[in-house]
Fold this protein.
Amino acid sequence: MAAERRFDRSAEDLGNIINFGHLNLAVPDQVAATAFYISGLGLTRDPYMNTGTANMWVNVGRSQFHLPTSDTAQVLRGTIGLVVPDLDFVERRLEVAAKELAGTKFDFQRRDDGIAATCPWGNRFALHAPDAERFGPFLSAFAYLDFDVPSGTAAGIARFYGEIVGAAVSVVAGDRPVACVQVGEKQYFRFREAAHVPGFDGHHVQIYITNFSGPYERLAARGLISQESNRHQYRFLNVVDPQSGDVLYVLDHEVRSATHPMFARPLVNRNAGLASNYAQGYEEQAWAARDR
């Protein structure tokens, strides 16, 4: 009789945060945003939600950018890590987009590990090829958000997300310690200590959690709830050390339950390379590889 196959069941644990829903960054110009996110990166504008000029939702696998129009651009203090299906294809698209985005902060550079790009307003991107070991079985995805945080805060930030939010966390030691917070399958918020951290400009992240009431009660007990949105959602701003109560970092969190009407909403990811070689039935790009 063949030996029974054993699996590492803990490898599939996610912690309380089961999905990173979206990153919200205000933009002053929807045309320039379209040139970068849609024409340049080859991402997909959500065809069903916010299709006017006041806001644009952009699909990346099963997560999104939300890009509302504002007089002032918002810039994440760190780096946005994305998985894209084809780096060579994106590089060619960015070369074309450069003409339309001349005079802005837009820039990009091909590197050994992918493409480093900067949006028209200064948001930094790291674009990676699909890699199941590093990023999971995804062809298109939000892999991580790297946040620059003050020196000496990584351990306290990890305690906050572990003890208050219930997330799976770890701390990587070194010259610049990093608090790693799992926010979905192979998705992470990484809080990396830095010598200088710009002020907070109001951008926000949105997460889905399974134990919705537990974190709420722990946050409310500390006076940290910043918005009572509705029955499916609340928000908080301050990341504090559970031991000292000190505010370590400020980041607007939109927290949704798994019963939220938009949880697991199917997102369209177009096949951006389908143009002159059009063939019916190939309009949509699969965001996950088949060998899951």
In short: The mean pLDDT is 94. Residues 50 and 56 are 6 Å apart (CA to CA). Residues 19-257 form a domain with the 2,3-Dihydroxybiphenyl 1,2-Dioxygenase; domain 1 fold (CATH 3.10.180.10).
